[in-house]
Amino acid sequence: MTNESLLEFMDSLDDVDPLELSNTILMPNYGPAAICLVKGEGAKVLDSTGRWYYDFLSGIAVASLGHANPAVAEAVSWQAQELMHVSNIFANLIGPKVAAMIDRLIRLERLSSGPGRVFFANSGAEANEAAIKLARKYGLESGKHHIITALGSFHGRTMGALSATGQRSKQIPFEPLLPGFSHVPWNDVAAIESAVTEATVAVMLEPIQGEAGVIDPDETYLGEVQQLCRSRDLLLIIDEVQTGFARTGKWFGFQHYSIEPDIVTMAKALGSGMPISACWAREGLSEAFAPGDHGTTFGGQPLAASAALATIRKLIEIDAPARSQELGEAMLKMYEGNADIDSISGSGLLRGINLKSPSAKKVALRAMELGVIVNPIGEKVIRLAPPLIISLPELESACQLILQAISEVE
Ligand SMILES: Cc1ncc(COP(=O)(O)O)c(C=O)c1O
User: Is the pLDDT of residue 180 over 90?
Assistant: First the structure.
């Protein structure tokens, strides 16, 4: 094949139906897509047939500032023309500033404790891999490596993060897993205590189980887990990949419970869609990583970090935690008392509509026909995670459409 014909082939791809191409050339691990999204603006996205939708999933809690946010777009565009990438052999101007902001936001309520440190990666799973490796390295001298996580938890798909994930159906096809994990029932402190062995180094939990169906912790759960960790000399790792950056009405979900985790992982909203994630560890723990212990080519590179820095600035400017809290309350009111809804879980703008009947998929399909993208989880839960910049009238119109979908299907 000549280069000319290769370019011809490339250009001919513009004429292929995008859904057909996507559903045939990409591996089938995601299942076939129903629509192809081509543009976003604020809380809305446009598909390839010209239909607009309210995006009540935000790319799974990523687009907290909405789509095509001008501040983020400008920062990324400027940085792309300046310097996209340097290896971590060298320092860059942006990544460390993002790290300093992450540290500040995590320690907002305990600035008197010393600063932690940050490792940058590219996805939630990789942030959790870093957390697992850091905990193991920390426990090395005392012979500790075992990590306890919760059943139903989701920590990612790479082999380490998958081994931490408390969902057998996702693990079984990929066994043997990484050894050294125990999974105990969620919201059960005694179960964690019984699972602790001489080899246990850490407990790893989400502040809300997002992928399992937006399942809240009991009010006292995380506080009691922290007490247990302190008394048994265990690290507490909090996975904020989905809940971080004001999604739940606080900068981080753990801040609802006034706890002080040793390690916090984050991703999704951090880069507004630019792939960047981070693993933060408290002072005295991060030093367990020595040069050469861990790394990744793109981690904290200027382009991804520029998106993160602009995202954090904008989230502060709009007081994202307060906004998330207020809009979350408004959303809650719209669903309260509905005869087809059993309960609403979650907090801020991460919510689960728990339906009385097993019709989540049908409701999500109908909502999409009516112009709102929502996410069914299991048979009964509809996950809602709209952009935090959504206006109240937009939120109300979209919620009305979701209510219409529920009433038509139920
Ligand atoms: C709590 C939590 N941890 C980890 C992950 C994995 O993140 P990623 O898909 O970016 O690897 C997710 C993704 O949904 C998540 O919700």
Answer: yes
15 is catalytic: no
Crossing angle of the two packed helices 70-82 and 302-317, in degrees rounded to 10: 150
Task: Please confirm, yes or no, whether 239 is among the known catalytic residues.
Answer: yes
38-86 pLDDT per residue, tens: 999 999 999 999 999 999 999 999 999 999 999 999 999 999 999 999 9
Q: What is the mean pLDDT of residues 149-175?
A: 98
Model pTM greater than 0.90? yes
List, in sequence order, every beta strand (DSSP E) within 34-80.
37-41, 44-47, 52-55
Give the domain ranges of the chain.
Answer: 28-61+319-409, 74-317
* Choice from 241, 245, 252, 279 to test ligand 1 binding pocket (greatest atom count within 8 A of CB): 241
Q: Which residues pair with 280 in a beta bridge?
A: 118, 264
Residue 109 in contact with residue 258, Cβ under 8 Å? yes
Q: How far apart are CA 390 and CA 65, in angstroms?
A: 8
* 206 Cβ inside 6 Å of ligand 1: yes
Whether CATH 3.40.640.10 fits 74-317? yes
Query: What is the third-level CATH fold of 28-61+319-409?
Result: Aspartate Aminotransferase, domain 1 (3.90.1150)
